[in-house]
Amino acid sequence: MQDSDSAAGVIVRKRRKGIYILPNLFTLAALFGGFYSIVMAMNGRFTLAAYGVLCAMVFDSLDGRVARMTNTQSAFGEQMDSLSDMVSFGVAPALISYIWALNGLGRWGWIAAFVYCSCAALRLARFNVNTGVVDKRWFQGLPSPAAAALVVGFIWLMDDYGVVRGSDDGLLTWRQMSWVMFGLTLYAGLTMVTNAPFYSFKDINFKRSVPFAVVVLIPLVIALINIHAPSVLFAVFAIYGFSGYGVYLWRKAKGQPTSVISTSKDEPDERGLHQ
Fold first, then answer.
1. Which residues contact 31 (CB under 8 A, 6 or more apart)?
2. What is the dotted CATH code of the domain comprising 19-254?
């Protein structure tokens, strides 16, 4: 279709709208990670299920960056990303935790799994609506990938230590372990919908020069993870998963604002948030 510019006499072609392939490939890869983790959990392979969620985290962190680098952002991509996150970081961790331990608690087990799943949906919906008013340096509540990492990271750690489902040979009986999983699942789910501020790392600019000590620190971190990846990574997930409440209490003690809403407490106008 062509439009004639009467002033300049130039024929202007309207840009056809379509779906950008590259960033959505990363989103689909993240979605596959969540789907893969569910299938592995159904087959009793919980370490592989944890790998699926963790790989989904990596791809989810890349799709937005790739879209910005290649200038291929789109409303379709944003909606696709939210749906992928719901599967990989909402449904998948809830089902994995239920199959691993919560199903032994009867109705309490599926209630915990459902609370986590519903909180993930609420957190993603709130994130989409509040994009225009939240301070970019902070997340309002625990981000869903971090909540998923906290849940599946614990299962990965226990599976690596040889904790057998239904066995009472460990420090805790299996029913006690199930209640630990119950508490952790509820904590991760409810923390997603709190107002506690969690650092987003979005103000870090990788294009800037850094001190030499930072370059030295990177291989040290890699070496530390290689000592025992499940323990180290779960410790990182746990520290981050509780950090928001620490920041909240610190701000409260200093008399600083605890809310990450930077402009208004009212629900923002949704127009333009998905452009």
1. 56, 83, 84, 87, 88
2. 1.20.120.1760
